[in-house]
Design goal:
The complex is a heterodimer of chains A (about 280) and B (about 475). Chain A is of the alpha/beta class. In chain A, about 45% of the residues lie in helices and about 10% in strands. Chain A is globular. With about 475 residues, chain B is α/β, with parallel strands linked by helices. In chain B, helix 4 (about 110-135) runs parallel beside helix 5 and helix 9 crosses helix 10 (about 305-315). Classes of the chains: A alpha/beta (about 280), B alpha/beta (about 475). Chain B: InterPro entries: Ald_DH/histidinol_DH (IPR016161), Ald_DH_C (IPR016163), Ald_DH_CS_GLU (IPR029510), Ald_DH_N (IPR016162), Aldehyde_DH_dom (IPR015590).
Chain lengths: ~280, ~475
């Protein structure tokens, strides 16, 4: 079933617009500057300057130091500012540092925090430690939404992914997210399937809905649509919403825009017709 | 709501002739008495083509052509040359795969996703696999120079028309036999396209002969004095009649008959994966599968979550146009089969089992049956004992591994079984005790040309596929 649906015409147009609205437009580089972040924010507001019907993305995702720039650039747009935190991407820092990192990002105006779990503790079986760290970060977030990055590429097995998903949800995460994008294996369909099953089962059991965010390696419209089909057929309709499903991506957006234009005009325009920010 | 727009595969890739003759001695010929029947698209009841009906005189002619080709050409040809023809056929099947897949879905009613991704690739794989054996028969474990049998009479069912043809023809030809094959009367079209492929591959005339018709044609073929070997896949009832008819004759027989496979779910199985396996086991190909996992045995401790998960999954199955690439369940192959599924399902209800189907809209024309499960089924119910051959699952429970084995084996059939557990040792323990030709562990309906397939008890005898499949076509 994974990736064998054929999504065409009206269904494709609907899926592309939804996918655009689900993008967490991301830049997480040492070379990030205020100028770079401002450019990305402009892109987030109007992904396709030539087409006012094109919806904005869900959020901008940056390092804590860039949060003030993003908050200012996005003011009044309704677009969320997400900040990675907790010694992203490795998470190899003392808990106090991780909490301070989180609090600083929230204080700077981030309303979404993307934390990394302690894989060192997880892989050595200290699950309680993983749980307690997430719970502490959740508390430090205050009203900001917490996305828990499992870094599934380092967890390696589906059993681990499922277990980490449950720890993340039980500890209070509002979203579970696959990857940092900083290790070779990022989001995959099978891993996302396991996580979607986990959030579905968790809601059946507790009544609380948790979101899912695959991140890293999703570059084409075709990929994005496969993820949406997976959401539709696993967790169901309730998750087909930017509040409950996000794509952590950067290059994906321009492919979505290119396919969107192709559907409306019938012809492919080259990459020069879409902004590089 | 994510509504999938129609995504139909194009019919334009395949040309269907308004009528077809019999394929005898390398050419299409008219039947002696001019009789014919119609083949229809079960999804719309539209007539696809008019097909010649072979009578005894035509069967005679086909067997004579096969005999002549056997004596003069095929049995004398070195194995490496036979292999070349088989490789050529396999390659043409791949090249014309789209055409074959569309035609199969049109004539049979199965979803294009299945004919495209399962049936046709397996057909090509079978020819490739047995092509490899053709010049290595001396190393197959049947002596230094095993000899072919002669003319093989092959009668195949409608559930996997071209795949069953491949299972029959590929090993027969590789071993040096010639064949007369009768496809099912509701699904003759891909066999006739295969006849064209034999012409395209320059296969010597008479090596493959295809006679179309219903039960009478099949009877004339298996009872013909000129055949040395009979291979039949179909119902247990007909299989028994064939076994009786050829008793005491020199003809060798292999039979692949019905099944009522148990699919056993232990409490430690990953439930979502097991549910995928249950769905694949019984709803694949509309349940028209002799090895379908039609009896679900669930350990009582996980009965509730498995059932809830199964129902949720079934509600996602898409029933409808077989040519739509998003269809999961296509049309029932014929009005007669639909009638049989309905009758047995009604009996299930009358006997006290609880019937459930997800809400699903069925097309007005054609033959359709919603995916259905029966809960509260016991071993005494007819729906737990008789093969329904449709998208109908009987759900039973068990408490211990020993009870699972006992219930799984408590059937006149023994074709296949499935085991779902996280424990490797339990898989081996179960496989040792299950009386079934194939035991799948944490998967279901998995086929490969190198793996032998066949039954215990009333599911028949002989094996098809793998090295074992050669034995049926060699004088050993």
């Amino acid at each position: 079933m994974l990736g064998t649906r054929s999504i065409k015409t009206t269904a494709k147009a609907w899926a592309i617009d939804l996918a655009i609205r689900m993008v967490d437009l991301t830049t997480l580089e040492g070379a990030d500057t205020p100028g770079k972040v401002r450019a990305l924010c402009a892109k987030a507001r109007r992904p396709d300057p030539a087409d006012p019907t094109c919806p904005p993305v869900a959020a901008i995702c940056v390092y804590p130091a860039m949060v003030p720039v993003a908050v200012e650039a996005l003011a009044g747009s309704g677009i969320h500012t997400a900040s990675v935190a907790t010694a992203f991407p490795s998470g190899q820092a003392p808990l106090e540092v991780k909490l301070a990192d989180t609090k600083a990002a929230v204080a700077a105006g981030a309303d979404e925090i993307d934390m990394v779990i302690n894989r060192g503790a997880f892989l050595s079986g200290r699950y309680l430690e993983v749980f307690e760290e997430i719970a502490a970060v959740k508390q430090a977030c205050g009203t900001a939404h917490l996305k828990v990055i499992l870094e599934t590429g380092e967890l390696a097995t589906y059993d681990n992914v499922r277990r980490a998903s449950w720890i993340g949800m039980l500890a209070g995460g509002d979203f579970i997210k696959t990857s940092t994008g900083k290790v070779p294996v990022a989001a995959t369909l099978p891993v996302t399937l396991v996580m979607l099953e986990a959030v579905r089962d968790f809601r059946d059991l507790t009544g609380r809905q948790v979101g899912v965010k695959p991140a890293g390696g999703i570059r084409t419209t075709k990929d994005a649509v496969k993820y949406l089909v997976l959401v539709n057929e696993t967790a169901g309709d309730d998750w087909l919403d930017p509040d409950w499903f996000r794509f952590g991506a950067s290059t994906l957006l321009n492919d979505l825009l290119m396919q969107r234009t192709k559907l409306t005009t019938g012809v492919y325009s080259g990459p020069d017709y879409f902004t590089l920010d | 709501m994510f509504e999938y727009a129609p995504a139909p595969e194009s019919r334009a890739v395949v040309d269907i002739n308004p009528s077809y003759g019999l394929f005898i001695d390398g050419a299409f010929v008219d039947p002696a008495d001019g009789a014919s029947f119609k083949t229809i698209n079960p999804a719309s009841e539209e007539v696809l083509s008019e097909i010649a009906e072979a009578g005894p005189a035509d069967v005679d002619r086909a067997v004579a052509a096969a005999r002549a080709a056997y004596d003069k050409v095929w049995s004398r040809m070195p194995g490496r040359d036979r292999a070349k023809y088989l490789y050529r056929i396999a390659r043409i099947i791949q090249e014309r795969g789209r055409e074959l897949a569309v035609l199969e879905s049109l004539d049979n009613g199965k979803p294009i996703r299945e004919s495209r991704d399962v049936d046709i690739p397996l057909v090509a794989a079978h020819f490739f696999y047995y092509a490899g054996w053709a010049d290595k028969l001396a190393h197959a474990g049947f002596g230094p120079a095993p000899k072919p049998l002669g003319v093989a009479a092959q009668v195949i069912p409608w559930n996997f028309p071209l795949l069953m043809l491949a299972w029959k023809i590929a090993p027969a030809l590789a071993a040096g036999n010639t064949v007369v094959l009768k496809p099912a009367e509701t699904t003759p079209l891909t066999a006739l396209l295969f006849a064209e492929i034999c012409q395209q591959a320059d296969l010597p005339p008479g090596v493959v002969n295809i006679v179309t018709g219903a039960g009478e044609t099949g009877r004339a073929l298996v009872e013909h004095d000129g055949v040395d070997k009979i291979a039949f896949t179909g119902s247990t009832e007909v299989g028994k009649a064939i076994a009786r008819a050829v008793a005491g004759s020199r003809k060798k027989v292999t039979l692949e008959l019905g099944g009522k496979a148990a699919n056993v779910i232990f409490e430690d199985a990953p439930i979502d994966q097991a549910v995928e396996g249950i769905v694949n086991g019984i709803f694949f190909n509309q349940g028209h599968v002799c090895c379908a996992g039609s009896r679900l045995l669930v350990q009582e401790s996980v009965y509730e979550p498995v059932l809830a998960s199964l129902k949720r999954r079934m509600a996602r199955l898409r029933v409808g146009d077989p040519l739509d690439k998003n269809t999961d369940i296509g049309a029932i192959n014929s009005a007669a089969q639909l009638e049989r599924i309905r009758a047995l399902s009604d009996i299930g209800g009358e006997e006290g089992a609880e019937r459930w189907s997800p809400p699903c809209e069925l097309p007005d024309n054609g033959f359709w049956f919603a995916p259905t499960i029966f809960t509260g089924v016991t071993q005494a119910h007819r729906i737990a004992r008789e093969e329904i051959f449709g998208p109908v699952l009987s759900v039973l429970t068990f408490r211990t591994p020993a009870e699972a084995v006992e219930k799984a084996n408590n059937t006149p059939y023994g074709l296949s079984a499935g085991v779902w557990t996280d424990k490797g040792s339990r898989i081996l323990w179960m496989a040792d005790r299950l009386r079934a030709g194939v035991v799948w562990a944490n998967t279901f309906n998995k086929f490969d040309p190198s793996s032998p397939f066949g039954g215990y008890k009333e599911s028949g005898y002989g094996r098809e596929g793998g090295r074992h499949g050669l034995e049926a076509y060699l004088d050993v």
